[in-house]
Structures are given as C-alpha cells and as structure tokens.
Amino acid sequence: MTDKFTVSVLGTGIMGAAMARNIARAGHSVRAWNRTRAKAEPLAADGAHIADTPAEAVQGADVVLTMLYDGGAVLDVMREATPGLRPGVVWVQSTTAGGEAVGELAAFARECALVFYDAPVLGTRQPAEAGQLTVLAAGPEEGRETVVPVFDAVGARTVWTGQDAAEGSASRLKLVANSWVLAATAAAGEVLALARALDVDPEKFFELIAGGPLDMGYLRAKIDLLVNGRLTPPSFTVTTAEKDARLIVGAGERGGARLDVAAATAERLRRAAAQGHADEDMAAAYFASFDDGPAEPGS
Hints:
By secondary structure, the protein is of the alpha/beta class. It has twelve helices and nine strands. A six-stranded parallel sheet has the order 3-2-1-4-5-6, with helices on both faces. It has a three-stranded mixed sheet with strand order 7-8-9. Helix 4 (71-81) packs parallel to helix 5 (99-111), helix 8 crosses helix 11 and helix 8 crosses helix 12.
C-alpha cells in the first residue's frame, strides 16, 4: 500500500502519542488532539498538526483514530467532534472499551454515516513506540484499503476477528488477552511480596524456575521494574489496569462466568492506587500486599 492519508488521532496518552508518531513517520498527515494539550504538543516535532478541539482535529481526515480512557470517553469526544466529521470517514476505535460499549459506538457511527472499525491493540509503551503492536480488528471488507496502511504503521501484525464491528468481537478478544496479562501481573507482585514476607531472595525463585515451563519473560520483566524502582514512566498505569480488570469482571458476569482472579486483581489495583501508585506501572499492584505502608521490594 503506497497511499497516504490524513489521520486524526484523538487521545495522545501513552499509547495514542506513540501510535500518532508512527503514523506520521509512515508518511501520513496527522492531526492530533488531547484533552490536556501539553500531552499532544510534542507530536508537532513529528509534523503533526495539534488541534484545540476534537472538531478541529477531524476536519479533512480520511481516518479518525480514538485512543482514550474508556468507551464513555470515546463517545463524549466523538460527539464533540461531530461538527467536523463528514459522512464516509473511516473511524478506528482502538480504546479498550469492552463489547457493550462498542455496540454504542457502532450505533453512533451509523448515525453519522461513518465507516466503523473496532480495533483495540495488544501491547504497551515499548511495542507502541516501536510500531510493534498487535491490532485486533473487526470491520467491513470495503474500506480496509484505507485502514490497513494505518494498522501497518502502528503494528507488526493485524488479527481480523470479523466483518461486523458492532458485534464487538475484537474488543471481546482484547478482554480475554488482557485478563491473562493482568493475572500474570498480579501474580508477579504476589510472588515478590511472599518472597519478602518469608525472607526469601527472589533470585532463588528465578534460579528454581529458570529454563523450565514455569519461567516467563513477562514475570521477570515486571519484577525487574519493582526491584529496580522503574515504575515510571509506566507502560500501563495502575488506574487503567484497574479499569480493564473491572471491564473483564463485568463481561464475565454477563456471560455467566465468575472471574475471581480478575476481581481480586481489580481490588489490588484499587488499593495500590489509593496508596499513591495510580500513575505508576501496573506492576505497582505489588504494594497492595502491605497494609502498613509502602514496602520497598528490595527491603
């Protein structure tokens, strides 16, 4: 694909900024907006136009990409963008919103005659910055010639889950994947907390599992962040992880599944946020293991 498009990116936090930068580097024109303008301003160095309002950001766009906190935030911002939207524009919804919210977003797209794609991404800060995300996408065959170059700019792989974005198949798969990520993160924190409580050197644990089926690079990476005090800048914040955990619990309930691990993980993340770790990497859920104040991993 050699066509270049004008892409409006609404939401330039950890993920949105990295995605916008890679879209610009792929040769597309980028128009960026964020509620806190200062978070969007650095993209000007990559040639992006920084807009003051969502409506200004989407003017003349071929593709609108939303990467915001949750489904409610996406719907609110798209309503603000309505004066600048034109019928036929492709809308790529990349927020982790959950299946029910996607249905509401799809209904809004129909009202505005937008071509809607549900396309959450799998990955955190580093793969986002490297353009190595996995895009989980659902949407019509017609129009994919416009979205595929954008997906290729932000990701290493696109997994198509269906042609009807309103069914939420991509977002449902994203929740399943995130349930594993969050469970593994919580388990990593508890392993470190138990080692501390029992006066066991965490390295002894890693030596025990090294090279076997219980070893996992993700486990080592999260514990390394804790032990070496590298929880900022976050790859995925405690607050956002809690939001996703609660989406997962709710989705399970609606489908008749009780998800005790996800529920406990949401509560651990809530406690960590209350302790002052809300904007740190979600590995900071570790601190929820201690009620008597922060317990440094190395202490």
